[in-house]
Structure prediction request, 1466 residues.
Amino acid sequence: MKARYSLKVFWICCLLLWQQGLAQQSSKVKTAHPSLLLTEQGARQIKESLGSYPLLDQSYAQLKKEADKALKAKMDVPFPRDPAGGHTHKQHQKNYKTMQAAGVVYQVTKDERYARFIRDMLLAYAKIYPILPLHPEATSKTPGKLFWQSLNDCVWLVHTIQAYDCIYTWLSPEDRNTLNKQLFYPMTKFLSEESAYSFNRIHNHGTWTVAAVGMTGYVLGDQELVEKSLYGLGKDGKGGFFAQLDQLFSPDGYYTEGPYYQRYAMMPFVLFGKAIAQHQPKYNPFAYRDSVLVKAVQTTLQLTYNGDFFPLNDAIKGENLTTDELVYAVDLVYGYTGQRELLSIANMQQRVILTAEGVAVAAALSKGEAVPFNWRSMAVRDGAQGNDGGIGILRSVAEPDHTCAVFKYSAHGLSHGHYDKLSILLYDKGQEVLQDYGAVRFVNVLEKNGGRYLAENKTWAHQTVAHNTVVVDGQSHFGGDIRRSETSAPQGLYFNSENPAVQVSAATTTDAVPGVKMSRYVALIQDAQLQEPVLLDVFDLASDTEHQYDLPYYYLGALTTTNFERKEIVGTTLGKDHGYEHLLLQAEAKPGKGAAQITWQNKEQFYTLTTAATDKTQVLFTQIGATDPDQNLRHEPGLLLRVPQAKHYTFVSVVEPHAKRSTASQVAAVELLVKSATGMAVGLRLASGEERVLLLSKGPVSAGPSEVILDGKKVRWQGTHWYGLRGELPVNL
Amino acid sequence: MKARYSLKVFWICCLLLWQQGLAQQSSKVKTAHPSLLLTEQGARQIKESLGSYPLLDQSYAQLKKEADKALKAKMDVPFPRDPAGGHTHKQHQKNYKTMQAAGVVYQVTKDERYARFIRDMLLAYAKIYPILPLHPEATSKTPGKLFWQSLNDCVWLVHTIQAYDCIYTWLSPEDRNTLNKQLFYPMTKFLSEESAYSFNRIHNHGTWTVAAVGMTGYVLGDQELVEKSLYGLGKDGKGGFFAQLDQLFSPDGYYTEGPYYQRYAMMPFVLFGKAIAQHQPKYNPFAYRDSVLVKAVQTTLQLTYNGDFFPLNDAIKGENLTTDELVYAVDLVYGYTGQRELLSIANMQQRVILTAEGVAVAAALSKGEAVPFNWRSMAVRDGAQGNDGGIGILRSVAEPDHTCAVFKYSAHGLSHGHYDKLSILLYDKGQEVLQDYGAVRFVNVLEKNGGRYLAENKTWAHQTVAHNTVVVDGQSHFGGDIRRSETSAPQGLYFNSENPAVQVSAATTTDAVPGVKMSRYVALIQDAQLQEPVLLDVFDLASDTEHQYDLPYYYLGALTTTNFERKEIVGTTLGKDHGYEHLLLQAEAKPGKGAAQITWQNKEQFYTLTTAATDKTQVLFTQIGATDPDQNLRHEPGLLLRVPQAKHYTFVSVVEPHAKRSTASQVAAVELLVKSATGMAVGLRLASGEERVLLLSKGPVSAGPSEVILDGKKVRWQGTHWYGLRGELPVNL
Prediction:
């Protein structure tokens, strides 16, 4: 027995040693290095192309400058201590960037100083990593070791493993062994098994995690790590890269958290995707699910105005197409598809990644192959099956300073989602006209909660009243309950941008506020008699019981005039909860029945909102930033249309950019002329006196023709809408 | 008797006719045309130089484009009706611009279409002018006819007379006769005799008036009009161009109304000056009074930060060195002085005027003769004799993004002056850090009181509390009485920028608040241990009776942190009058004894104010824009240091830009260590722990050495100040 037992132990030990040896052995034998993004051939191409393509030269010079600067600096691998924005946080970020840069430069130049820099730094990490506790500033349920949250550890690894890959064959077996045993294996273990929640999560954190672990698996030649990364810890397809591709994107490539996180999430998807394509081409990740990754990159680009992402959900404003993530995404997808309109984006970015794809982009650009990217009107579906509402984008033209309305009827979008069903945004002449506040967060400002989200992100930014949509009875949609909100997205009724002169998008929800059917019809109208495109906004509410309906519009700029008296108010917050406590009431008015007009100035440009007021309508003028002891909110204006008590009510308004520098509105009035079971007629009177009618189907359009009685006649139309002179209504259809 | 009487009448009539004939005759005989700014030779130079100097080509092309566009448009000389910003206002402005442009193009090309355009338009004006009443929108005591105020009529004439000058010889004698009789003579009569108040006024309106009339006098060859313009209606030197040059500028070329109006006023001065120089070179206007016109242009350029004028007094923000006025001023003064640093300003302006001087500038620039303009630290004296205080400008370096403190201890500055004795402004990295609000006015926004100054300009912008200076007992300086304020300017104590590492400016007043001596010492310190220059601000108050002392700082950006607790306040205005009614109180704090620190973020940049708080010190956090029914005010933040009851008190603070993107302050504390009859010692503790002392003479410096007892030792220094380590105080001087 004893002998057999010993033998068994012996065999088990052998097996373990063999497995470990195999892991290391196989990486030596099977895998070429580098081969995650940059390959030996890619490095050769870069070397041979330098001096030929300006964008490549520039990008390489920048990277080399970074690497050279790092080589001269004193190495600093501090014991992790600070939260986001603090010294150790920034230093570890800097380290992975400089290691990655040095890796590329080493591959291009074969100058060993760069390799030694990486080796020495990695060995310094290997020295501390095994003894690292969880980060002292960890406050989330996904703590990191190098950083306060494991997400940042993953980002560190995604970059660092590329550097390791670049010097892998150069390293001595001893150093490789030390690094594998003391750094990369412990780290992948920590990020996979020991962080199972993150690893298996269908969420951008999950994507970063599987990308980090999977890419490391490829470099270490550890197929087990790769398999888990592709299919989840249980290798059962419930988590991992493919499950994430299946569930996080809609068939149109919309990422459920919205554009800001879509930008961020694209990075691990395209990086890991590229690594998979190189190592296991059979998976063909860029073709997977009807090329959803390619669509996702295209959609990310579409979800912008003048290069800036629509700031939906928890978004930091000002992030744009030139961020690192999009440089990777655009170059790698160009490498796969050769789509020439991506080149014009690369041209905006003014840099390329240092891989064969980057060379191809720079080469194509220098040969003048770029064609303009076509930002266009489109409806983007949300939800894995495409059934969870979406985003309607209406653009006047494809040029940079165009007018653009964004209609959000998407799903909640996970933890970073807002209670903003049927909200709209408006842009014009390069600036925000009706804004989405975005997130309450000062990224990298240590003093502001370590750069993390602030309390007002939930109490203000998430709330319905922080958006350009209707709040019923002063309460946020779904009562501000994410579990309820996650269960129901609005239903897209129709989207029609066939005729650029009149484009419409409509959606509805009966769940956001139980007992109240909310439907919104957004039209972008380019009337030959108007100098500028206008937004016609119809918000229809129907309930069997009485409610207070509030419709805020967060215009940016300074109020100049109203065509009605305002009463100034000092020192009242608009309410006590659901975000109303953050609104300071500055003035109120009862314009009375008729067209109420409010004009404001934003930089050199004037805008007017014309709304059909009734006897009941109140207009409240507000400022964001009350109940804000730490002054975390931006003090920006808003106006709020209020109907205190109504069952059925339809807000009808026009938001109109003025002609350049003009202070005169071209719209005199707007009103709901009539509403039937199937349609609505909205009247628009121009300052010139001419009268227009927009007939809107209540939708969905498949329901057949719509009909209203107007001017004593039966008016009937097919499809989504009809627009024209009041004297030429389609009465004889 | 009857015969003799008739004879007398006859002779008088003859004399009158002869005079009138002479006027017309002499203009034909004596004067070359054109000769105001552009001359025949200048036009020839332009023609010959086109194609050689890019800036000339560009400027001429722009002018020609304007003229060509006007030639194609339908002529519109409307009957005056609208206030500033309205159609007829804008059209008459457009007309004088296009006529002037067409005049230049005619002289260069001799293409008669341009001459005909001017003739036809002038004849259209001649048709309506004789029957024009005062403008229907006239509200000032200086009504115009074409415009709501006569000032604009003058501006119209200054431009139009140049166009007339350009086609004078081309015109038929009949047309000339018509235009002289029906347009130019009636207009000069209206603007001189019938507007005697404006004409004789020592004020920028006066300068525009005499320039318009005087330039017209030269073109009509009417020396009487010229003499009146040079010496006032009474030709006694009490008014007119020279009296204005004597009284409106200080010996340093500072214009008493401040930079914004200085920019505006420069235009008629240099235009009329040039016309005088061409017609009556004996007057040598650019050499007059020790070249005060040249100095004035130089000083105008110095009164800027990154090209923008310091917004002192009633200033519209954003006006900069590239305005038309400065293009004229720079080119004409270059023509006189040949100062090569003016060329770099012309390069910023990217255009030149179309005269011989413009050709010279464009030629010199294309030959690379420009040298950088030297924005430097300097004290600029105010007052005709240079005795009425001034402006201290402290700059860290001459580069665009430098740190710059502006200390205003000038005279009131006529009707556009503010009650802001001893106020400061701070700039850094291209942006305003501590702002002056400027004026409450929306230029050209018809809906905002026709684009004129708004009520809040007086109730807010003029008031002391709207500025970064001390308000005593909640009342503006001089009780907000301009008559009192005009009688007393602060006294400059000293200015010392010899050593760029520590520059100081000090001034005092005992008149702004009777019974309270107010003295301010402003130092810009560039300490080798600090990454950025800091502003050290000492405001010393002395009274025999108790007062409330308020010192506001109008920082721009968003508060990020304070090192003390703040209590949020909702809905209180800070007071009822003197501008306090326009401040909304948002939070208050009693930081307690020690260094109170307030940090804010402006775009990417952080700033900290560190102040020595006592047990009494209150810090109020405010927002501009309460009691503002028409929303005329910008909602911008401020903080206010308050000492509720004190006789003697010294506010000591440091305002510190952080290193780029850093959120960490490098200053730990500041305090007043000791004060004596002759000097003060201010202690500065850096975050590194090192201690510095700034010894400041109380001034004036001529008073001899200063002395304090510090750390038990007698510390003595000569001159304005001493700065160094606390351990190395000058005890053995």
In short: Chain A has three domains: 1-26, 31-366, 378-728.
